[in-house]
Design brief:
The protein is of the alpha/beta class and 188 residues long. It has one domain: Flavodoxin domain (Rossmann fold), CATH 3.40.50. It is 34% helix and 16% strand. It binds flavin mononucleotide (FMN). Flavin mononucleotide binds next to loops.
Length: 188
Amino acid sequence: MSKKIGLIIGSVRTYRVGDKIAKWFLENSGITSKFKVDVIDLREENLPFYDEMLAPMAMKQQFTKEHGKRWQAKINSYDGFVFVASEYNFGYAPALKNAIDYLFEEWKGKPAVIVSYGYAVAGTSSAAQLRHVLEKSMLGMKVMPTMPSVKLEGSMFNEQGQFKDINKSFEPFKANAEKAVEELSGAF
Ligand SMILES: Cc1cc2nc3c(=O)[nH]c(=O)nc-3n(C[C@H](O)[C@H](O)[C@H](O)COP(=O)(O)O)c2cc1C
């Protein structure tokens, strides 16, 4: 239980479902029995677009602005991450890209689980894109091989756009969520 995981909600739009999916993962993947987990909501973080003169890898962690210092301190305090990523035009959301781009040392080499969701391809294009960025860039993060992907369907939602019964609808995705958490616990 000593390792600390940040579970990042990667979508910030007003009518998002990402927060519900993050909550579902938190409650159904078994992650809280293995780690101390905090939810990190990028909507609450409200980071502006990256606005330092130097690139993050040249910053030597000397942020000049309060929001950068705050974000740096927060991400630095985690041993690993779960990224809950929506799929927008086959990619992940811009707020998540910006939040990742802000930092360097604070992410570097840390293990991560990617949870994606979407309609046609269940967010797998978004997940593949995110994996590429986390692993192949100088961030060199260790993405767990199991990347739970949730296939959304219109029938899951009521007329207000809320999940009718997320636990029932997401039952088929639970095993992969648990498997990814097992892999994460083996990554330390
Ligand atoms: C700008 C935008 C682009 C989208 N593009 C895709 C897509 O390429 N593939 C897909 O399966 N769903 C796509 N969708 C549908 C999203 O998967 C769905 O709206 C999901 O709820 C988005 O996550 P969020 O509600 O947490 O923001 C798109 C939605 C938006 C808002």
